[in-house]
Amino acid sequence: MSMDVLLQNLANSITLGSLYALIAIGYTMVYGIIRLINFAHADLLMVAAYIVFYGILVFSLPWWASFAIAIVLTTLLGVTIEKLAYRPLRNAPRISALISAIGVSFLLENVGIVTIGATPKPFPRPSELVWNIHAGGISFLSTTIIIPVVTVILLIAVTFMVKKTKIGVAMRAVSRDFEASSLMAVDVNKIISATFAVGSGLAAVGGILWSLQYPQVDPLMGVFPGLKCFIAAVMGGIGSIPGAMIGGFILGFVEVMLVGFFPGVSGYRDAFAFVILILILLFRPGGILGENVVEKV
After folding, report:
1. Which of 33, 43, 51, 160 has its CA 20 to 30 A from that of 109?
2. Please, what is the angle between helix 188-213 and helix 3-34, to 10°?
């Protein structure tokens, strides 16, 4: 493999890893607070992409206005899902909330198929954001730079919020003990809603950036990215924000480099992600930065 090809694959792996990391942070935040794998998180990615799609092409809104509206509406949808589908089951067995999450995911996907149609549509990429860059012997899109920068900025912002703000302290308290937090005058419902709002906002940004990098939208576009990001979160240590970031970058690097060095196995790139998940669960169940904690029954 030549140096140019290696650099090209490295650039692609950073971009893909950044996308995985950004979406995985949303998974790990919700799990860290209420110990729930929010499988509907990946479908919020799809919702945001379609809002931008219709905002630009149907309502002729500027791209920045469409992006802002998509983030706001997706955030509100995430909070609404928490209130309607998860909050009533908070004291139910954990499997009930998990089944509810799967049901919400299927609901969003099938509503999309029925109302929008299953046919993939080209995503409008603003020329102000997406253009080709040539550097030496490699060529890449401007999103190769934009996506990692946005991901790092959001990671810093979320980490600062969790570590340095009052709502972040409350989130960490709720993640440790619901009952003790409520006795300390913490509004548990409000904190959980705030967590879903942040996670849903990250999913919206992830959906927009994903569509800019891979300009095609369909109602099932969030399925495989969502599974990959869940794997990234588990790999890094689900519940750990830096761990989700590390897991996303590792998964993106492994996927791209595997195809780059062994193009004959490119059809199995998704399978390798699940092999990595199995190995992590076997040898490091807590993930890279997570803790191996045995749950009390």
Report:
1. 33
2. 160
CA distance linking residue 226 with residue 23, whole number of Å: 8
pLDDT, tens digit (0-9, with 9 covering 90-100), for 276-294: 888 888 888 888 886 655 4
Total count of domains within the chain: 1
Measured between alpha carbons, how far is residue 38 from residues 64, 77, 210 in Å?
Answer: 28, 13, 19
In 3-state terms, the chain is what percent helix, strand and coil (to 5)?
Answer: 75, 5, 20
Question: Is residue 221 a part of any domain in this protein?
Answer: yes
- Asked whether residue 289 is domain-assigned, the answer is no
Q: pLDDT digits over 190-234, tens only?
A: 999 999 999 999 999 999 999 999 999 999 999 888 889 988 988
For 51-107, what is each residue's pLDDT tens digit? 999 999 999 999 999 999 999 999 999 999 999 999 998 888 888 888 999 999 999
Range of 236's domain?
Answer: 3-108+115-283
Report the percentage of the chain scoring pLDDT > 90. Answer: 44
| Average pLDDT score over residue span 16-43 | 88
126: left (phi over 0), alpha (psi -120 to 50) or beta: beta
Closest CA to 245 of 138, 150, 141: 150
CA dist 18 and 151 (Å) reads 6
| 8 Å CB contact between 144 and 133 | yes
Q: Does residue 290 fall inside a structural domain? A: no
Kindly report each contact of residues 173-180 with a partner whose C-beta sits within 8 Å and lies 24 or more positions away, as own/partner: 174/33, 175/32, 175/33, 175/239
Q: Are 236 and 248 in contact (CB under 8 A)?
A: yes
Q: Do 24 and 229 meet the contact criterion of CB atoms below 8 Å apart? A: yes
Compute the distance between CA of residue 31 and CA of residue 183 in angstroms, rounded to an integer: 22
126-136 mean pLDDT: 85
pTM of the complete model: 0.90
- The whole-number pLDDT of residue 106 equals 93
